[in-house]
């Protein structure tokens, strides 16, 4: 294969150096051949010796390409932002002491490696710097007499040195445009130098161009360094500037100390070091050739994807290994078998490689890809890329390896190579890479087969899918067949399967699956009900034979007897056998034979009579203990004589492909061996109850292969530890209370049908036995009696009690179904009026009654538990069963208190209402303590100023917030307008000759009471008689009153006035109250100094004089 120009580059590490002119200086005691090996174009050594390493030789490889290199070169802080595109040449400046880290170079001892480059000088012009080449390479242009040091490090914090290895930096010398006699020299430090391999270009004319090498000392920063110097001589005949073709090198150094390269040449002209290009003929191939490997994310398919490769630089034939093997190994058992689903070989440009590569499986967990020497020579500098995808995964293990940070499932694989050179295998370092599977729902079409005449509904959705599962944490996968297709032609059909996430129903996928329809070999499923017949002169075995054809729902029922023989001579003229076939409860066939009937008569009647799956055979047999049921091989155990002892004369058998299932009395459930309805076949489990025996039976609702009746199927594989079904057998004590379970048969999800059957055999069915049946999917639980199935009365209950009776079979009991009610009663109500049936829903059930455990109480507010005794009447022996439930009773008070207003109640005008409104009512009643009642006036301002009937509203409340409002009549009684108090005036002694005298007694007051309620006002007047002695002698004098000071009981004197008067025989107005004033009590107070006796006549006779003041109160102002 020819080399191609590479658009993506996964190259080797090397240098490109522009060198002109040699400088021969002093050789420092070592031979050039010790360091240098020069090769001819055919690989023959011209000078020097080969290198025999005593420790690993690492040739790092860049793992990325043009798109990733910008992220993998870490420059010093402040690098020019243009360092982000291809062809930037030397745009990025650096300075002395700066470090450059080249990452993503592979692994060593399981740790990632990088190259650390340190600059020993600072650029002096714009052409010196760092840039990116078009071939995913790094360009570094050096100053004259300056260079770089480099060392291989681990790509970890602080970049620790990789010790005890040799570093092989393979590269390319190339002459740029040069002038005649220009020389450029590159110097390699020899303190850790092991070997420099150099080859001459094929087109070089050795007579015209010659390489010169020397060992010498040069001074760097004032320190002498030992170097291997190389130079190119350009003869004078080359006058015109031109390019000289490449020549190649491989520099091997001890990595324990930094290696350095120093440039010498013309001032102002830089020397270019070019890293990571793959052109050129690499003269040395080390033993360490690590595999490049990257894990990838999967697509819509549940698979682990990897992109691996191997880079081989073009080299001489003698350096190619005899073979190179890439090993792919599953060391942690993440795959059931490591067989690649796809295996593609491409070169670095993505072009498919057509050469023969040897690929073989070394084991279930290891693959080997072998590249021969011819392959490697053809590849040359191209990258070999192998695309891998594996889908035979260990799903359970992968789903336990979820990375919460990256939100992916990781699938690790180990990659390494084995290099064979001269018959010796050398292993490279091993690289562990994680493929990543994203959380999603998955499923791929799995081409399937079906039989002619079957339907797509007979198929299991997951059987049509490969890798049908969900990887969303906490999710489950639903699957269903979308199309109902009848496979009635021998051709390929397309069936669509829908898968969806349970957590996110919007996440769905539809997968079209090819289904090839084929003719199926038909298997006959045969079962027998046999019995010993006592015929003419001996016995023979009669058989009722049941045949079903595989995958068909229709079968036949036949009788096989003995020609010329009767059934039983002792039953001559009497019915001996009766056969009735029921379909969905309706009779489709019925016959009977006497003991003396010829057996061939029954053969004729029941000659392959057509039956369907789940028909019921009613078999009447006068000697039931003689019958034996033998069902198909591989199914449930046959019904032997051990069970036939418990048979009755009338047996009912459910018939299907599995055989005869007794259903005189039975409990059946539907369950799923693999856990999910719609994804797996439906199984029916029967607990058949005979007179003294119990047994289990299972059949599949799928008309399929006999293996579907395997008793090793479990009750629910997805819920292995959960209880799925149980039957508990009870006895009733003398107190009519159920005892603890006497025996129990219990099935968990992990329990097999066979294990459950063994438990059932230990239970005993007897007349009157009580069983408790548990099944979580109660709508899929049925009770059978005489071949007829009845569903539960209440499908919300997971536990149901039944009574097994001889005459009525299985009877469902209701005592455990009675639900208590929450009852609210009124405080103080008559408890005897409460019906016990009001405390439960017992009226919905027959054969149960109830009584109160204790007397109902209504004398106290609050909530309490009222026990209700439930009596379940049983069918057998006039027995009954007692149980108790509790009803919650709440006593409330919703009755308001009552009272009536007292009759003929009066209140004097202007008097206050009673402080306690209760004083106005009587006949107070309530259903609680009346002493706690609260009385209050409503809408009352307390006004009693108007005579007549006043309506007083009174609210009566109890402690529960109930209240009554009364209107009470209160008569306001008015009074009159009266003078309540008048003063007496005593002037004591008056001296003869005095003409006036001021009153000496205390202040005087006059009081008027207005209780009329009219608010019309009033006027107070006074007149006075003459002063006279007892003998009638008169004294001329007058009584003078100055204005008094009015006050009122309501402290309102506005509108009340007094006047200055001199009393005489004519009435004078003393005090006046205008309209709406002067109500209640009004007082006029006259101070002493304002009361005087005036105009006393001189020369009056000595004596004690009296005069009368007449007070007049007028009812108008």
- Total of domains: 7
The structural class is mainly beta
The rounded distance between the terminal residues' Cα atoms is 143 Å
How much of the polypeptide forms β-strand, as a percent range?
35-45%
- Low-pLDDT runs: 1-29, 174-181, 203-208, 233-245, 675-679, 703-707
Q: Please, what is the average pLDDT?
A: 82
Radius of gyration: 61 Å
* Count of separate DSSP helical elements: 7
Largest β sheet strand count, sense and barrel closure: 9 strands, antiparallel
Tally of strands: 80
Overall shape: it is flat
The proportion of residues forming helix, as a percent range, comes to under 10%
Q: How does this model look, in words?
A:
The chain is mainly beta and 1117 residues long. It has seven domains: 16-275; 292-436, Immunoglobulin-like; 441-518, Immunoglobulin-like, CATH 2.60.40; 521-662, no CATH class; 816-892, Immunoglobulin-like, CATH 2.60.40; 898-973, Immunoglobulin-like; 977-1114, Immunoglobulin-like. Helices cover 3% and strands 44% of the residues. The strands form 18 sheets. Strands 5, 6, 7, 8, 11, 13, 15, 16 and 18 form a nine-stranded antiparallel sheet that branches. Strands 1, 2, 3, 4, 12, 14 and 17 form a seven-stranded mixed sheet that branches. The longest helix has 8 residues, at 753-760. 36% of the residues are buried.
């Amino acid at each position: 294969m020819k080399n191609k120009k590479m658009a993506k580059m996964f190259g080797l590490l090397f240098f490109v150096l522009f060198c002109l002119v040699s400088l021969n200086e002093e050789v420092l005691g070592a031979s050039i051949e010790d360091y240098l090996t020069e090769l001819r174009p055919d690989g023959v050594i011209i000078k020097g010796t080969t290198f025999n390493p005593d420790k690993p030789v690492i040739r790092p490889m860049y793992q990325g390409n043009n798109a990733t290199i910008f992220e993998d070169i870490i420059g010093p802080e402040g690098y020019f932002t243009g360092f982000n595109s291809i062809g930037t040449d030397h745009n990025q400046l650096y300075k002395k002491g700066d470090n450059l880290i080249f990452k993503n170079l592979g692994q060593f001892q399981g740790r990632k490696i990088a190259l650390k480059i340190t600059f020993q000088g600072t650029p002096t012009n714009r052409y010196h710097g760092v840039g990116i080449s078009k071939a995913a390479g790094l360009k570094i242009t050096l100053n004259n007499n300056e260079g770089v040091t480099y060392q291989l490090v681990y790509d970890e914090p602080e970049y620790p040195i990789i010790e005890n290895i040799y570093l092989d930096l393979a590269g390319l010398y190339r002459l740029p445009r040069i002038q005649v006699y220009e020389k450029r020299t590159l110097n390699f430090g020899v303190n850790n130098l092991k070997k420099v391999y150099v080859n001459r270009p094929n087109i070089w004319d050795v007579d015209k161009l010659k390489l010169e090498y020397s060992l010498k000392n040069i001074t760097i920063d004032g320190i002498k360094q030992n170097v291997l110097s190389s130079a190119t001589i350009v003869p004078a005949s080359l006058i015109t500037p031109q390019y000289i073709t490449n020549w190649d090198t491989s520099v091997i150094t001890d990595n324990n100390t930094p290696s350095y390269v120093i440039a010498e040449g013309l001032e102002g002209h830089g020397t270019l070091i070019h890293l990571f290009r793959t052109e050129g003929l690499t003269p040395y191939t080390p033993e360490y050739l690590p595999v490049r490997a990257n894990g990838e994310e999967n697509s819509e398919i549940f698979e682990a994807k990897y992109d691996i490769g191997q880079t081989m630089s073009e080299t001489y034939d003698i350096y190619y290994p005899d073979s190179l093997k890439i090993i792919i190994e599953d060391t942690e058992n993440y795959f059931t078998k490591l067989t690649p689903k796809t295996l593609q070989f491409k070169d670095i440009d993505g072009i498919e490689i057509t050469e023969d590569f040897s690929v073989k499986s070394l084991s279930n967990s290891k693959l080997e890809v072998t590249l021969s020497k011819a392959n490697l020579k053809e590849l040359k500098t191209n990258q070999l890329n192998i695309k891998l995808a594996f889908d035979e995964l260990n799903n359970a293990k992968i789903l336990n390896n979820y990375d919460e940070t990256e939100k992916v499932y990781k699938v690790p694989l180990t990659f390494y190579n084995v290099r064979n050179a001269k018959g010796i295998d050398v292993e490279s370092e091993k690289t562990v890479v994680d493929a990543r599977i994203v959380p999603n729902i998955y499923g791929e079409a799995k081409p399937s087969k079906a039989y002619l005449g079957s339907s797509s509904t007979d198929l299991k959705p997951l059987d049509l899918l490969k890798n049908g599962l969900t990887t969303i944490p906490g999710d489950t996968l639903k699957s269903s067949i979308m199309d109902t297709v009848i496979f009635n032609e021998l051709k390929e059909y397309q069936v669509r399967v829908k898968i969806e996430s349970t957590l996110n129903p919007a996440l769905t996928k539809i997968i079209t699956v090819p289904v090839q329809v084929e003719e199926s070999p038909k298997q006959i499923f045969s079962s027998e009900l046999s019995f010993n017949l006592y015929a003419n002169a001996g016995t023979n075995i009669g058989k009722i034979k049941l045949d079903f054809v595989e995958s068909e729902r229709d079968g036949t029922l036949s009788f096989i007897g003995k020609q010329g023989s009767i059934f039983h001579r002792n039953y001559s003229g009497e019915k001996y056998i009766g056969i009735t076939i029921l379909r969905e409860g309706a009779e489709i066939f019925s016959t009977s034979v006497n003991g003396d009937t010829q057996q061939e008569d029954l053969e004729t009647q029941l000659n392959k009579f057509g039956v369907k799956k789940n028909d019921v055979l009613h078999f009447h047999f006068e000697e039931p203990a003689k019958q034996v049921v033998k069902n198909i091989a591989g199914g449930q155990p046959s019904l032997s004589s051990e069970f036939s002892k418990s048979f009755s004369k009338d047996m009912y058998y459910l018939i299907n492909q599995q055989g005869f299932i007794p259903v005189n009395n039975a409990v059946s459930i539907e369950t799923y061996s693999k856990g999910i309805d719609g994804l797996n076949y439906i199984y029916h489990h029967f607990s058949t109850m005979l007179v003294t025996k119990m047994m289990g039976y299972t059949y599949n609702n799928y008309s399929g292969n006999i293996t579907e009746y395997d008793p090793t199927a479990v009750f629910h594989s997805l819920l292995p530890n959960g209880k799925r079904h149980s039957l508990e057998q009870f006895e009733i004590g003398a107190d009519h209370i159920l005892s603890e379970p006497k025996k129990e048969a219990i099935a968990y999800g992990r329990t097999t049908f066979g294990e459950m059957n063994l438990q059932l055999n230990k239970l005993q069915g007897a007349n009157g036995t009580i069983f408790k049946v548990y099944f979580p999917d109660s709508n899929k639980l049925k009770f059978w009696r005489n071949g007829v199935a009845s569903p539960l009365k209440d499908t919300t209950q997971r536990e149901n009690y039944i009574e097994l009776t001889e005459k009525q079979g299985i009877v469902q009991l209701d005592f455990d179904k009675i639900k208590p009610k929450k009852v609210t009663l009124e405080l103080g109500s008559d408890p005897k009026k409460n019906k016990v049936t009001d405390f439960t829903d017992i009226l919905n059930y027959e054969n149960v009654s109830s009584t109160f455990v204790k007397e109902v109480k209504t004398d106290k507010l609050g909530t309490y538990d009222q026990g209700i005794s439930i009596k379940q009447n049983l069918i057998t022996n006039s027995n009954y069963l007692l149980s108790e439930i509790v009803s919650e009773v709440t006593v409330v008070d919703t009755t308001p208190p009552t009272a009536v207003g007292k009759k003929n109640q009066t209140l004097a005008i202007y008097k206050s209402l009673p402080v306690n409104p209760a004083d106005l009512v009587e006949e107070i009643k309530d259903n609680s303590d009346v002493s706690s009642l609260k009385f209050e006036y409503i809408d009352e301002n307390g006004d009693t100023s108007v005579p007549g009937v006043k309506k007083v509203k009174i609210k009566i409340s109890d402690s529960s917030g109930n209240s009554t409002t009364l209107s009470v009549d209160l008569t306001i009684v008015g009074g009159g307008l009266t003078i309540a108090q008048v003063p007496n005036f005593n002037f004591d002694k008056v001296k003869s000759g005095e003409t006036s005298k001021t009153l000496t007694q205390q202040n005087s007051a006059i009081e008027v009471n207005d209780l009329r309620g009219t608010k019309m006002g009033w006027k107070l007047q006074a007149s006075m008689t003459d002063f006279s002695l007892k003998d009638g002698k008169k004294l001329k004098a007058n009584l003078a009153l100055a204005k008094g000071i009015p006050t009122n009981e309501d402290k309102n004197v506005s509108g009340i006035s007094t006047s200055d008067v001199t009393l005489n025989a004519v009435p004078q107005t003393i005090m006046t109250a205008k309209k709406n004033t002067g109500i209640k009590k009004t007082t006029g107070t006259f101070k002493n100094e304002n009361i005087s006796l005036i105009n006393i006549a001189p020369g009056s006779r000595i004596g004690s004089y009296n005069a009368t003041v007449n007070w007049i109160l007028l009812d108008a102002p």
